Here is the input.
Amino acid sequence: MSFQGRYEDHIRPEKLDKLSISIFLNNLQDTHGGVGANIAYSLALLGEQPVLVGSVGPDGLLYMEKLAHAGVNIAHVFESKLPTATFNVITDSDQNQVGGFYPGAMFDSDRLSLAPWKEQSPIVVVSPHDPKAMRRQVQECKEWGLRLCYDIGQQVSNLPGEEMAEGVETAEVLILNDYEMTVLSKKTGKSIKNIKATVPIVITTLGKDGSIIEGKAIPDSIQVGVAKPQQVADPTGAGDAFRSGFLYGLARDWPLKACAQLGAVCGTYAIETVGTQSHSFTPAEITARYESSFNESLPSQITKE
Here is the structure.
């Protein structure tokens, strides 16, 4: 959902204790999503074979078939009797967003475990979903020595500080935006400087200002710019697409700057369409856009079987 005005024209700071606003929407669209599914979708476009671990209701089975057709492994998705989780968001003309989330089947997560991969070495992405499942998956990564990308996003506001502190201590990669990083610091009692000295790779996304890569394994911070989209339709899902590109490069031991630059390019495709999985690209297309955006070649060729 979107409207042509701006939230700042409707919200009065001095009346936040009695907030009541009504906005006429100029666009309403129902699309598939979910952070983990969004990341998996763009990884599949890149030719990767991502495995989705989650829980959906009966109303989400056709959606799972769509993901499977796109190349996502859905064998480990649990079918719950509860409705599939739903997120409703309203975006203003400045791309600011206010949303509401109904968890539904997401909270039916007791059967979700990383045990099938404990003898392997996957990159595990723990993205926002059921807090108790996130806690369990962090503990499993810690116990079995799995590579953890801790991508807690908006759940930073809901998770207990001690649980996030364990995630920070276990993670190989931490990805947050600058606001979420501030909340994480406050709730864990760890300074941002301390967090960056603990996690090997810390990526702070900065919206239109790109991203910055820091961390215990990074001697000097790496500033990464944005790739310019051909049009701006909807920013929702751009961050998830960024993660896909970054993870694709990370799995191939690319230089971290190249990983983030591919992430930035993936993000442009998401921005150009309404919905988090409406975009598409071929290896040739994303390679050309990468080269034109950053005036350099990819570390290795992107191929899709």
About this structure: The chain has a mean pLDDT of 92. The first strand starts at residue 54 and ends at 56. Strands lie at 54-56, 77-79, 86-91, 97-102, 123-126, 147-150, 173-177, 201-205, 211-214, 222-224. Residues 131 and 222 are 31 Å apart (CA to CA).
